[in-house]
Specification:
This protein is α+β, with helices and mostly antiparallel strands and 190 residues long. The protein is built from eight helices and four strands. Belongs to the UPF0702 family.
Length: 190
């Protein structure tokens, strides 16, 4: 940090600093590598790690927050560098979304698929492994949706956002309680 007595205001230095053109090329390469790697890591961690926010959106918030904060707090970071980083992050995010929409093969990588976890009152445990979710988490998500009995559920889908969409029978038979005190008695079949 600069001592207050040694400080002199220089607008041009604040705006572009002492960096040459090669620094901006390096920033471009750094943004591409870090954004790509982070998206892969967020996808690897899974839906639960990001909650309702999409992986590109959470990355956008974190990366822009860091860039904006650094530019505001540290006089050694020229505004042009922060503006370049913010612009590249926004452009990367737009490209990420566009590629996911336009190209089916890329969408399979960039967007997690929706998984059916319950069908006709039965847990589809084979699908749990795809998103590394376990039975207890599925039962918790069902209880959070007000479900007390597995037999109430016609279909339940684990959405891209990590939320469970539940479709109940109109006139359910109340069997197979999923309340914590009844779980030892729950007989689950695939």
């Amino acid at each position: 940090m600069i001592d207050g007595n040694d400080y002199t205001f220089e607008f041009l230095k604040m705006l572009i600093g002492d960096f040459g053109l090669m620094m901006y090329l390096e920033i471009l390469i750094r943004v591409i590598i870090i954004m790509s790697y982070t998206i892969l890591m967020i996808r690897w961690i899974g839906k639960r790690a990001i909650g309702n926010i999409g992986s590109a959106d959470i990355l956008l918030i974190i990366a822009m927050g860091s860039s904006v904060g650094d530019a505001m707090l540290y006089p050694s970071v020229p505004l042009a560098v922060a503006l370049a980083v913010i612009t590249l992050i926004a452009g990367f995010q737009k490209l990420y979304v566009f590629m996911g929409i336009e190209f089916r093969g890329i969408r399979k990588v960039t967007h997690p698929r929706v998984l059916k976890l319950v069908e006709k009152g039965k847990l589809l445990e084979g699908n749990f492994e795809i998103d590394e979710i376990d039975k207890n988490e599925v039962l918790m998500l069902l209880r959070q949706e007000g479900i007390r009995y597995l037999s109430e559920v016609e279909h339940a889908y684990y959405e891209q956002s990590g939320i469970l969409s539940v479709f109940k029978y109109d006139n359910p038979i109340f069997e197979q309680s999923i309340l914590p005190e009844d779980l030892d008695d729950l007989k689950v079949s695939n």
